[in-house]
Predict the 3D structure of the following.
Amino acid sequence: MLFDDTFKTIAAPAEGIFKDRGSRFLAFAFPVKNEDEIRTHLETLRKAHPGANHHCYAWRLGADKQRYRANDDGEPSGTAGRPILGQLQSFDLTDVVVIVVRYFGGTLLGAGGLVQAYKTAAAEALKVARIEERFVTENYELTFDYAAMNAVMKLLKDFDATQSAQQFELTCSLNFEVRRRDADALCEALKKVETVKVNWKA
């Protein structure tokens, strides 16, 4: 395993605000699963705040936290996106985007002032967010004869696997999701049950 099978993210959207010398920095944090969701949130906020001067953001995706991006949206390089990303790293979060909408107040804040403003706005949103620890999971497809039903269900329950897409006939099928830490052990146990076939699902 290249990384721990737990990670932290936020359970629901959260907001924060920071003001400095007339400028307002409105921070919005969203839980996300992919870049399409990130783009949707950006588009929504641009439509909701058409008069804002900047819509700066940063995001991290994946339990290994290796996919990330920071965007200054016209602010001086490194003064907006990077401070926002720094807060995602400080809170050790992933599968999160933070977008900070700035309304310019007429007074230049300088590079240091901008860094502090975007950092603080992002932190304000993340401080009020409900942070959850989640497991990295693996998904599988399972087929088996009806006679193996009880044995299969007991194993899935023992390993706290989540079931979906069930079809119970003479030949049964279902999908299940299980914590990565337990995946190998559960699959090996299932394969010992007669008629059971397990396939990994990407």
